[in-house]
UniProtKB/TrEMBL annotation:
Pfam families: Methyltransf_25
Keywords: Methyltransferase, Transferase
EC class: transferase
UniProt name for this protein: Geranyl diphosphate 2-C-methyltransferase
NCBIfam families assigned to the protein according to its UniProt record, in alphabetical order: GPPMT_Stmyces
InterPro entries tied to this protein: Erg6_SMT_methyltransf (IPR050447), GPPMT_Stmyces (IPR049645), Methyltransf_25 (IPR041698), SAM-dependent_MTases_sf (IPR029063)
Residue intervals of the Methyltransferase domain: 86-179
Single GO biological process annotation from the record: methylation
GO molecular function annotation: methyltransferase activity
Domain of life: Bacteria
EC number per UniProt: 2.1.1.255
Source organism of this protein record: Streptomyces noboritoensis
């Protein structure tokens, strides 16, 4: 399951992770995400009684991260109840539950963190959707799922932990012909050269390896995935980071993100591609 020392270190990181920036936001409505947010925040959350200010910020941050998941799901195309979806690198499973609520179909999530898988399955049971939403302790580079089983697959901020050519080869195998793959990811800007200092600090913080923007399109082309939509979400995600920096949940990585986005060395992209 865990092929390399690096994969073992990533699994250990997420098995031990109990960051309030993930858990406190999920506590708002029981949807636990492991990604960032998009859209303008409501400035009124910074006003009003000081004793409830942080709670208002947390609720708004969670609204923005759920809005990000909605945008990803919007790009999956027409999904029917008889279809099957795969959430690759599912974290604690919030997006999978949102997908099932929207489409009514079966959703499988995979993670190399047993702790995340156990937590996510517990949430599915609490919501009474565990007959349709299931999480698996599997490697997204080699899931063991049948060929052509999925109408849609997504990665939401998880591709920076794997080789893109290996990942997209596995996704292409699992997707039905004409199926849709969607990724939202941070990637460094090839035009500015290698990783900037700010991007390197993000890598270090999350024990990841952020890819250049061009690598996504090269790996897709090599594996029969044809981009249909490319959306630059960079400007849309900056408000989330500005608000998070003013909350009790700030972890210190907010400044590198804001610096990298503002200087243009880092982009936040959505790519939707069809399997051909």
């Amino acid at each position: 399951m865990l092929r390399t020392a690096y994969q073992k270190s990533v699994a250990e990181y997420w098995n031990n992770e109990k960051d309030p920036v993930n858990l406190s936001l999920g506590d708002v409505d029981g949807l636990y995400h492991h990604h960032y947010g998009i859209g303008e925040y409501d400035p009124s959350v910074l006003e009003g009684p000081q004793e409830t200010r942080d709670a208002r910020i947390i609720e708004e941050l969670h609204r923005l991260e759920s809005a990000q998941a909605d945008v990803l799901l919007d790009h999956l195309g027409p999904i029917a109840p008889e279809h099957r979806l795969l959430d690759a690198g599912c974290g604690r499973g919030g997006s999978s539950i949102m997908a099932n609520a929207r489409f009514g179909c079966q959703v499988d999530g995979v993670s190399i963190s047993q702790q995340q898988v156990d937590f996510a399955n517990g949430q599915a049971r609490k919501r009474g959707v565990d007959d349709k939403v299931r999480y698996h302790f599997r490697n997204m580079l080699d899931t063991g799922f049948p060929t052509g089983a999925f109408q849609g697959i997504w990665n939401n901020e998880s591709t920076m932990y794997v080789d893109l050519f290996d990942l997209f080869a596995e996704h292409a195998r699992q997707l039905a012909f004409g199926g849709r793959y969607v990724v939202i990811t941070g990637c460094y800007n090839d035009v500015t050269g290698g990783r900037s200092k700010a991007v390197s600090r993000i890598d270090e913080h999350y024990t990841c390896n952020i890819h250049p923007r061009s690598a996504y399109f090269k790996a897709m082309a090599a594996n029969g995935l044809v981009p249909m939509n490319v959306v630059d979400l960079t400007a849309a995600t900056i408000p989330y980071w500005e608000l998070r920096a003013q909350s009790s949940l700030a972890t210190g990585v907010e400044d590198p993100f804001l610096t990298a986005y503002r200087e243009g060395s880092f982009h936040y992209l959505l790519i939707a591609a069809d399997r051909v």
